[in-house]
Amino acid sequence: MGTTSALVDTTLYAVVNMTCICILFVIYIMGKESVGKGNRFRMTKLLLSLISFCATDFFWVFVEGNVDIPREGNILINALYFTLSGLTAYEWWLYVELIMDNKFEKSHKKEKFIVTIPFIILTIASFSAFFFNGGIFYISEDNVYHRGPLYLLQPTIAFAYLAVACIHTARSAKKEKVETKKKMYGAMTSFILAPISCFLIQLFIPGTPMVCVGSTIGILYVFIALLLRTKENQASVIFALTEDYEDIMLVDLSTEDFTDYRRSTFSDILDKIYDEPGCNYTDRIMRFAENFVVEEDRAKLYKATSVHHLIREFEKGKDVHVDFRIAAENGVEYYRIRAVADKDFESTKLCVVGCRNVDDMTRKEIQHNIILEEAKIAADSANKAKSTFLFNMSHDIRTPLNAVLGFTNLSEKKIDTDTELVKDYLKKIDVSGKHLLHLINDILDMARLEAGKVAIEEKPATIHGCGDVLCTMMGPQANDKDIALNIHYENIEHENIYADILHLDQIMFNVVGNAVKYTRNGGKVDVTLKEIECRDPDFGNYIITIADTGIGMNPEFVKHIFDSFERERSATISGIEGAGLGMSITKRLLDLLGGKIEIESELGVGTKVTLYLKLRLRDEILVDNHAVEKDKQDYSKPLFDLRDKTVLLVEDNELNLEIAKELLEERGMIVECACDGLEAVDKVKASDPGDYDLILMDIQMPRLDGYEATRVIRSLTHSKLSKIPIIAMTANAFDEDKKKAFDAGMDAFIPKPVEPQVLIDNIVDIIKK
């Protein structure tokens, strides 16, 4: 330097650098709203480095021509000048990196160290002028400044730092929306062209301060691009809430300043009520809650929307929302406030807060939750009922089963010594077995009723016929206890009816059976069938009353008598057996028939049960007064000769096979066995017509079940073999199982456990045909 030209150049440098400082200071002030507190510190360092860079020029201008600086001082000032130019570029690169990625400080330490190396090289090269003349510059012995062979290292490193910042900005711009991307690319183009153009000018016109001017222009353009990006991020967050939210405001959580983007009636009312300057975000929330939100929800709203809570949740990467109620003209309405953080929240501390009406949606959710809660209660009740079922079944099944096993064991011990005692044991085994069967039937009936698989089937019947069957079914049991069972008829004007005889008999059997069961020896049971007036000419109203002189029930138990497995404690203590399902089944069957039941009872006095039925009338006279099932017929007639009749017994259970085989052979029948349906089909195919008089077919068997085996036999080409009579003998005892059997082509259906006389009668009927 040391010349007037150098002084002019240096003065021009100083002026240009002062201009750069002013521009950067403006950027610094604007950056308060765009990049947040965290990066303002980085921007402060950038500004200080540029001020230091310019200070060297000011110092040289001050001393040039006034102070005779020694050669070492001249070297020091120029070395600082070149070093500070690199430091300014380095700080600018770091500033851009931090804005584009606010996690850079933590996750890019290795990259940050690597990029620091050029700055270190530039510093060493600058201060090397103290030792030799081969660096960026050198000062001759006459104290004159000269460019060194590494002079281009200074602008190259400075541009390299700026280029890295530009590349990072370009990489980030690729993720932005199209409009923002174009603006950022345009800014970066100016950033690249301006300093390069100035640098080329400086190469040909030494001393022209164009590099600094070009760098400043580039810095300004890149900052504008960053500002556009920040504003675009804010706009995208705001846009995400604008469609559904009535109130929207942008909030700076560091200062609690807010800007309204959309205002609702609430905001207008608040402004009218509180015409005070300086209202911040917290004030707005407090006033809103006090004026509109129901008192019970205010604390929840304050907590969820507080500045500390929002900052804590946003730092976890979460959005915040809170539902609350607002007092309205017609009660309350549900609203929701939602807060969403800015994409660069760590540096900006900005968020968007919106408020919207969610009344319809919330009420639907509440209704849905009510349904779920009811379903849960129902499920819990079902689980409780299941537990009760298992508990009661464990007791009620084990009781008769214990008798069966116990008397069987006693019979084995006494079989050779006391025949009469063994016969008594066998009778008790029979009674316990029948009770166990009755219990199982009740359980199955209840399961079918709960599953909705009970169908109503009306058939012709008579009122007196119902009473006759009742005497037939319950007479022997009443006689055994010396109970007077009396049947009365009152005002029966319409004798002939249509009724579901099977289920009506079951209802009567359950109610009258309980009356006989719980009445002491020598007591009385009165059954009254009465017809009352009915306005519908096609129907008749009938009342059936069953009154006994039994042990009675307490009023509290009567309230739960139709619940499954409910039994009066006195009944249990008295040793009377029962699963507590009979009255529950009765109630459900009456519901299916369109009737109802009422119970009056007094403990120790007796019980009165009243049944109400509305039955369809018929005109024709029924010759057979009431359908009587085959297993209730009189079997005292002469036995049909079954000797030498051959039966194919298909059964996979060895014990059942042994029992059935013994029953058949007692009647002189020839029994051939098959262990499953497939073996039965093979035996029929290999037989000649007449080899088998009939087939007894189990249903559930391995390889081929009874239904499918029957279909195969019915499809045989030999007409006589395909028409062999087949009787289903199965533990599948439901009506739908019976229908499946007949649909498959079977001729009769016998449920297990098999009653010997029922089996023989069905065989006789089939063979007679």
Structural shape: elongated
**Mean pLDDT score, rounded?**
77
Low confidence ranges: 33-38, 102-106, 568-578, 622-638
| Major sheet details | 7 strands, mixed
Helix content: 55-70%
Counting copies of identical and different chains, the oligomeric state is single chain
| Percent range for β-strand residues | 15-25%
Distance between the termini: 138 Å
Explain this structure.
- The chain has 769 residues and is α/β, with parallel strands linked by helices.
- Helix content is 57%, strand content 16%.
- It has 26 helices and 19 strands.
- The strands form four sheets. Strands 8, 9, 10, 11, 12, 13 and 14 form a seven-stranded mixed beta sheet that branches.
- The radius of gyration is 52 Å and the shape is elongated.
- Residues 33-38, 102-106, 568-578 and 622-638 have low confidence and may be disordered.
Q: What's this, in brief?
A:
The protein is 57% helix and 16% strand.
Provide the descriptors you would attach to this structure in a database record.
single chain; 769 residues; alpha/beta; 16% strand
